[in-house]
Every structure is written in C-alpha cells, then in structure tokens.
Amino acid sequence: MADVPGDIHHHDADRWVQCGCGAKHWGANGAAGLLLWRAAGTEVLLQHRAPFSHFGGTWGLPGGARASQEDAIGAALREAAEEALISPHGCRVWATHELTHPDWSYTTVIAEDIAQQAGGIGDGESLDVRWVPMESVSHLALLPAFEDAWPLLRRYLRPITLIVDMANLLGSRPDGWWRDRAGATQRLARSLSELDSVAAAPFTSELSRLFPEVLAVVEGQARGVDVQGVRIVAASGSGDDEIVAQARAAAEAGDIVLAVTSDRELTERLAPWVLAVAGSGSLRRELD
Q1: Multiple choice CATH, 160-287, 3.40.50.1010, 2.40.100.10, 3.40.50.300, 3.40.630.30
Q2: 16-156, which class in CATH?
Q3: Which tens digits make up the pLDDT trace of 29-69?
Q4: What is the DSSP letter of 8?
Q5: Which helix (H) or strand (E) holds 44?
Q6: How do residues 156-198 score in pLDDT, each as one tens digit?
C-alpha cells in the first residue's frame, strides 16, 4: 500500500466496518460524498483518488466517513471542503441518494455550484480535482460503486421545482378552512416555508430526500396570500390552468418538475411536463 500523507484529516468514525453483505466499508457511521454540478448539469466535480486510498487511482466524488453527531449532508460538504476546496456556502443541495447495506450506508448529496467555484486539491487524499464534462465521466476509470450509480445519478443534475395545488392541499383535510380560506391558505403556506425537504418516495424510488424550489399556486379568495420562503403564484383564472402553465414553463427551462395534487384530471394534464405527481396526503404528512 502507498504511504499515507501527513495532511489527511481524521475524526472519530474513520475506521472500517465489517458489513453483513460480506464486504468491508469505510466509516463507522456510514459515509457520504458530494456530487456537485454546474453549467446546467453539463459538468461535475470529480476527485482522482490518491494511491493509498480504497480503489486508489480511480475517479469518484469527494467524500468520506461521517463523524459522530454529523448528518450526511454535513459530512459531504465538510469532506468536499477538506479534499476539494469547495465552500459549503457555494453549494445548493437539491437531493440525496442513499445506498443502504445491512450495516452501513453511503449518501450521495446532489448539489449545484452556485458560486462558480474552481475547486482544487485540498489534501493528500486527492491526486487531482477537476470539473469534468458530463459526457466524459464514463470514459474515466471510476470508483466501482460510483460507476454503478452514475447512470441513475446523472438524471438528477438539474434544479427541482415542486408545484403545489394549494386549493387541493387545503381541501384534503376538513379542518374548518372554508370559514377563512385566505387565512387557512396563509397558514398552510407558512408551514410550507418551514419545510426544508420532502421525502422522495411519493415521487421516485431512486432518491431519498428532495430539497426543491416550492411553487404554490393559489386561486379565488386566497389570491392575496404572501409568505416569505415560498414562491406563490396567484391564478388570474383557473387554478388548474395556472398549475399546468407553471409546470410547462419549468420543464421547458430544464427543471425536474414535481407536483402535488389529488385531482385526477389535473394529474393527467400535467403528465407531459412532470416527472411525477404525488397526492396531497403525502405532503400533509410531511407538514404534520
């Protein structure tokens, strides 16, 4: 094995785990890596792994073991800062993907570079760090697990817009909202603004959590609702027509579009523009 450089960062979870799958994995609490993209998903930041590391000489994501009391996103951002000189403040997280083993897990944090960061070699764990055109990734000698995951992960290197049918969401629970529709919508929008992520399961089985831009469409008596942290669009006419128009605009802009409604006719109208539609009950459970 190659010598280990002296500038490697260490913490309490830096050890091997003997997993029930029969293999050994790095990280007592699991591990995480940052899949950072830029330029509308046309480039990703990759690390050429140092010879001493597991599968040294291959290309993969900056990442490593999760420290105790550290979540996967925090671990991925910390590791990218240490290994690839990426500032967490310049990363906009959009989603996570989790590979789960019997006694270990690896979380890929999918994020967008919003600060035009160059990246670079941060410590001895990297032979090189560079932005790679997406179409060139598969031509590199990749870390085997990343090579397996890349065809799936590359589909999600875009912004995610979640369009919420507020009238349908409001009506999904008989809690007296009809007595003050505007006030009830305002409270519901405020709850949405406090939601930093949603479970991916109602929309796709390929990701674990989503951190979308939320666009809430309101209509009728709720048109005057305004809450910081949520983009609210007031329909001038039919709420359904506005939802379809917003979905089409987001899709044509290149976003991954998701929607929340239990309206079957609206769901059918949205089909050309959205990845998936989830029922209002799924979002209600997130808000409870």
Answers
A1: 3.40.50.1010
A2: alpha beta
A3: 778 999 999 988 899 999 998 877 777 789 999 998 888 88
A4: -
A5: strand 43-49
A6: 999 999 999 999 999 888 888 888 889 999 999 999 999 999 9
